[in-house]
Backbone:
């Protein structure tokens, strides 16, 4: 049985965890493909609200194997504490597999992240300061430590020692920062490695074996495709590939093993950190959108920037990622707005442009072409089937589908598991 990719279609925080969680019940396996503890999933279940950063959302579905793939960068201290918390709340974590090839985020990575942000002065990226960029930089520079190395008691102390020595020199001399306490941190890391090593293995083989057994495998990307290192608004991006191609690489799955790519989009837009955001709202409407959508970061607590749905960016993401269907989340947040605007085009210095600018200072000057949709002004949080949706909400969904070039298969009308409404494969033609 082929695999399904769940990816964020915007700048992250689209509610991917909720979609993965919904699919996990009928899947044998959920694999996390990229990113690290910069991500944050909030999942609301009858057992309460769970906030996780590294453990795949599928952990809450009994019987689902959860894999952290080679493309993820793992903060061992964070992962060990997440597992302890899940266990303390009665969640069975035994079906977790951690790739031995996944790179480790070490405490000095966060310090380097902080140092780089302060060197950027007036134009910081607004990273999560979790050390993600520096950890991926070490991986690509071939001086990183992988989970297999961290769990190898023969060499780990020497490896860490070498790393701490070089990085502490860098921290003090280049970033004018404090040294990381190498001795204490080494002990904490080794303690975390002892907790994690029973879960560490050849994740790509585990994934391929599941596919070979005809199990449905869900690959979960962190962040959003607009934050992709290659195709996002560089340099205001993350350091991995939260795309369908990145999902294959990070999970150890071949492209021809994928038959479904679910692009998760909010019914509007949000972005954390700096970078271009043409449909951003700075007025009272933006304030209301932020409050109604509870747009505050899971990882950093930062207020998110919010704006109308950007169909230009979304269409690009659908094309580049082969999105086969859209999950449109947080539709209920728009209950109170009429009209609801959609960014359907871009202008740059007064001229219409067809594509997303590559240079971020150009992208910054882009003005959106907005086109209104009629609002439904009705509470849709208790809607459980497509038939119960107001006609104007169906028109809005159909419009998003037509602008993006993919059918909408489900819509989110609230945070709970049962507030995900299947809408068939809604397209503009089907809605008529
Ligand atoms: P980094 O991934 O911490 O290096 O941050 C780079 C950019 O990606 C910043 O703008 C962050 O706010 C953003 N970012 C990273 N992870 C997430 C996420 O899970 N959701 C939303 N934005 C994120």
Residues:
């Amino acid at each position: 049985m082929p695999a399904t990719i769940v990816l964020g279609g915007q700048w992250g925080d689209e509610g991917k965890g909720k979609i993965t969680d919904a699919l996990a019940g009928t899947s044998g396996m959920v694999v996390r493909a990229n990113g690290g503890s910069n991500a944050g999933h909030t999942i609301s279940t009858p057992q309460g609200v769970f906030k996780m950063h590294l453990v795949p959302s599928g952990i809450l579905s009994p019987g689902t194997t959860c894999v952290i793939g080679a493309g993820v960068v793992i903060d061992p201290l964070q992962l060990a504490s997440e597992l302890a918390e899940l266990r303390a709340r009665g969640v069975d974590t035994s079906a977790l597999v951690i790739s031995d090839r996944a790179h480790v985020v070490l405490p000095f990575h966060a310090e380097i992240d902080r140092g780089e942000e302060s060197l950027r002065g007036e134009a910081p990226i607004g990273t999560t300061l979790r050390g993600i960029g520096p950890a991926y930089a070490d991986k690509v520079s071939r001086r990183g430590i992988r989970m297999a190395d961290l769990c190898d008691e023969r060499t780990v102390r020497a490896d860490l020692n070498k790393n701490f020595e070089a990085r502490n020199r860098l921290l003090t001399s280049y970033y004018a920062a404090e040294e990381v306490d190498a001795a204490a941190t080494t002990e904490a890391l080794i303690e975390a490695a002892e907790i994690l090593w029973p879960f560490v293995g050849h994740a790509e083989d585990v994934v391929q074996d599941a596919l070979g057994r005809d199990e449905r495998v869900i690959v979960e990307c962190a962040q959003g495709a607009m934050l992709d290192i290659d195709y996002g608004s560089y340099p205001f991006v993350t350091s991995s590939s939260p795309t369908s191609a990145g999902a294959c690489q990070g999970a150890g799955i071949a492209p021809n093993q994928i038959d479904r790519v679910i692009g998760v989009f909010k019914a509007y837009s949000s972005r954390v950190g700096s970078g271009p955001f043409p449909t951003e709202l700075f007025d009272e409407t933006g304030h209301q959108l932020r409050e109604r959508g509870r747009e505050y970061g899971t990882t950093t607590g930062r207020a998110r920037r919010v704006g109308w749905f950007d169909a230009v960016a979304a269409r690009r993401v659908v094309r580049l990622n082969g999105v086969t269907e859209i999950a449109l989340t947080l539709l209920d947040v728009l209950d109170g707005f009429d009209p609801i605007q959609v960014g359907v085009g871009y202008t740059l210095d007064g001229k219409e442009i067809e594509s997303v600018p590559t240079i971020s200072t150009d992208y910054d000057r882009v003005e959106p072409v907005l086109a209104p949709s009629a609002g439904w002004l009705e509470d849709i949080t208790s809607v459980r089937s497509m038939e119960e949706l107001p006609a104007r909400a169906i028109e809005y969904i159909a419009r998003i589908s037509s602008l993006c070039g993919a059918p909408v298969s489900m819509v989110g009308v609230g945070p709970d598991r049962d507030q995900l409404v299947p809408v068939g494969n809604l397209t503009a033609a089907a809605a008529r």
About this structure: The CA atoms of residues 38 and 128 lie 6 Å apart. Residues 11-13, 38-40, 125-128, 130, 132-133, 222-223, 227, 236, 238-239, 272-273 surround inosinic acid (CB under 6 Å).
